[in-house]
Structure formats: C-alpha cells, structure tokens
Predict the 3D structure of the following.
Amino acid sequence: MVRIINVIPGSYWAIKKQMLKSTSQQPAKALNFSIIGSLFNRRWIVSTIIVAIASMVMIRLGIWQLDRLEQRRIFNSQVMLKSTNQL
C-alpha cells in the first residue's frame, strides 16, 4: 500500500524526497555535498552567530548576578553591624 503525502516545501520530507531523487540520479558524493552545503548556508550561519552571541550575553549576565550577590551580602553585613552597634 502506497501513501501519497502532500509535502510542504522546505520541510523535512521535502528535503528527504529531494535527496532521494539526487541519490538515484547521481553518485553518493553529491548527497554528502548537498548536506554539507545546506549546513553552511546563510540562514544556519546567521542562526549560529546569534546563538553564540546570546550565550555570551547570558554568561556575562550570570557573572553580573554573582557580583551583585557579593555586593548585597557585604551591604547586608554592614547594615547588621551598624544596627548592633547602635543598640
């Protein structure tokens, strides 16, 4: 029994269908180059750069939070010291 599926352009199944066509017409090297070529297209490169920048920003914000915690603990200890000296 064969199923006929409408394929959305750019979806996983459309890419797989295109790859299967290319393997039946061309040798296996063409398949490897098409996969590597699709990994290095502009959309993937831009996405990778955005994720790398976002990761760096998140790491820096985490370090900032730890610095802020240390400052807050120092401030709290100073307030506690002053409040015990006043009594």
